[in-house]
Specification:
Length: 105
């Protein structure tokens, strides 16, 4: 099994979810996160005051898929999350040795 972690723009979440659903992947965990990469800090103006934006809002998607679905899921995420700008997305893949379900008893 593979764990795929993708950090994408907020506006791309629905596209990524729909694209994954089309290939039969319908389970994922989604978190709102903040971060920065090569785009670094920048300044913005709000109501006449200038301020520095250190971290940009993003969405982090976590999903675990079988080895046979990992490459397809990766391609779908990259294609649907891409906006053609720096900081579009980051995708990390790691091996999952074991997964267990916590069942209510």
């Amino acid at each position: 099994m593979k764990k795929i972690e993708a950090i994408i723009k907020l506006s791309k979440l629905q596209e990524v979810q729909d694209a994954l659903g089309e290939i039969g992947i319908d389970g994922m965990t989604v978190c709102e996160v903040k971060g920065f990469g090569r785009q670094n800090r920048h300044t913005e103006t709000y109501r006449g005051s200038e301020y520095t934006v250190d971290f940009l809002p993003k969405i982090k998607i976590d999903l675990v898929v079988g080895d046979h679905n990992a490459e397809r899921a990766l391609k779908v995420i990259i294609q649907s999350a891409k906006a053609g700008k720096m900081g579009d997305d980051k995708v990390f893949i790691s091996n999952v040795e074991e997964a267990r379900y916590a069942l209510a008893i």
